[in-house]
Design goal:
By secondary structure, the protein is mostly beta strands. The strands form two sheets. Strands 1-2-4-6-8-10-12-14 form an eight-stranded parallel beta sheet, with no helix packed on it. Strands 3-5-7-9-11-13-15 form a seven-stranded parallel beta sheet, with no helix packed on it. The radius of gyration is 17 Å and the shape is globular.
């Protein structure tokens, strides 16, 4: 645990040799540099917190080897590029918090494998393509994909009975708000503003 300290510089690839690593907290520490590919050797890692730093570059494909990972929180950095498709193998993920970076690309090709998600925060990036469909994640409660370049229609959430918060604002979504959203009894907050071609009523 080294979070909330002022530690400058980048993460050394030698950390990857710590193959028993389970919890890695380096949040808010002024770190720069890239995400070391050697971290892929942490096959038993459960939590990685690297948020509120100055890290750059793309995520390594070796992340797909971290099959035990439950939470990956890397928000408020300067990461860019596409999310590696190997991350479809991270089927134990519960919390994905990638907001406030410069990520691009289409997520819908592999997020359907993340069936244990409860929290998804992807806002303020440059993701494109269809909005990720997460109907296979019955425990999902918080879903924020606002301020990206997603297009197409809104996802159907009728089977997500735990869902409380949805933000799909500031994208390029068109069509209507699915009437099935009215069946999600726990849904308390919905923001679909700033989608010029979206009908704002339950049409």
């Amino acid at each position: 645990y080294m979070d909330m300290n002022c530690i400058t510089g980048s993460l050394s690839s030698s950390f990857g040799s710590m193959t028993s690593m389970q919890y890695f907290y380096f949040a808010g520490t002024c770190l720069s540099g890239s995400f070391p590919s050697s971290f892929g050797g942490w096959t038993g890692a459960l939590v990685i917190f690297l948020y509120n730093n100055f890290m750059t570059g793309s995520l390594p494909s070796s992340l797909g080897s971290m099959s035990s990972l439950v939470a990956l929180e890397i928000f408020s950095n300067q990461f860019d590029g596409t999310i590696p498709s190997s991350m479809a193998l991270l089927t134990n993920l519960s919390a994905v918090r990638f907001q406030e970076n410069y990520f691009t690309g289409n997520l819908s090709l592999f997020t359907e494998h993340w069936a244990k998600l409860t929290i998804v925060q992807l806002y303020t990036n440059s993701f494109s393509g269809a909005i990720p469909l997460l109907g296979v994640a019955p425990g999902l409660s918080f879903y924020d994909v606002g301020d990206n370049a997603f297009s197409g229609s809104l996802p159907v959430f009728s089977s997500l009975l735990s869902l409380e918060y949805v933000d799909c604002s500031q994208n390029a979504i068109f069509g209507t708000i699915p009437s099935s959203w009215g069946l999600v009894s726990n849904l308390s907050t919905v923001n679909v503003s700033s989608n010029a071609d979206l009908c704002k009523l339950l049409c």
